[in-house]
């Protein structure tokens, strides 16, 4: 992720991602969607920045995932990545954080990046 941006005067300055926020989510019985919302709520509680969950969330995987665990002192990005890897086959989803400067809002969205390329190669070897 980029960690430097240009400020209003054109000077390069360091800017960390809101997902670098260190969060703690207490243990509770939740499904994956509830844990993802708890991650976003923890960011809001710590920074005042609200992150909405986008429409491409892998809701079927998250709904079937259940946990009683919490999150202790992890960057939010790592917590979200851990959740995705626990709720679905490892590394088939990735997240993107979008920022709309017009209304200063964030949206956490997801993309399928998983084994489709491998299965296509197996079905049609060169």
For the structure shown, list the relevant keywords.
single chain; 126 residues; alpha+beta; 3-stranded mixed sheet; globular; disordered C terminus
Account of the protein in words:
The structure is a single chain. By secondary structure, the chain is α+β, with helices and mostly antiparallel strands. It has one domain. The chain contains four helices and nine strands. It has helices at 32-47, 59-64, 76-87, 116-123; strands spanning 4-6, 12-14, 22-25, 30-31, 51-53, 66-67, 71-75, 93-100, 105-112. Strands 5-9-8 form a three-stranded mixed sheet, covered by helices on one side. The protein has a two-stranded antiparallel ribbon with strand order 1-2. Strands 3-7 form a two-stranded antiparallel ribbon. Helix 1 (32-47) packs antiparallel against helix 3. The model is unreliable at 117-124 (pLDDT under 50).
């Amino acid at each position: 992720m980029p960690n430097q941006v240009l400020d209003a005067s054109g000077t390069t300055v360091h800017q960390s991602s809101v997902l670098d926020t260190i969060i703690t989510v207490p243990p509770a019985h939740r499904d994956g969607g509830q844990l993802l919302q708890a991650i976003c709520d923890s960011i809001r509680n710590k920074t005042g920045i609200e992150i909405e969950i986008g429409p491409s969330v892998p809701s079927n995987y998250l709904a079937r995932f259940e946990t009683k665990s919490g999150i202790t002192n992890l960057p939010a990005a790592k917590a979200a990545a851990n959740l995705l890897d626990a709720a679905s086959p490892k590394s088939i989803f990735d997240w993107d954080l979008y920022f709309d400067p017009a209304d200063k809002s964030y949206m956490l969205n997801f993309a399928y990046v998983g084994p489709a390329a491998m299965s296509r190669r197996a079905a049609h070897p060169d």
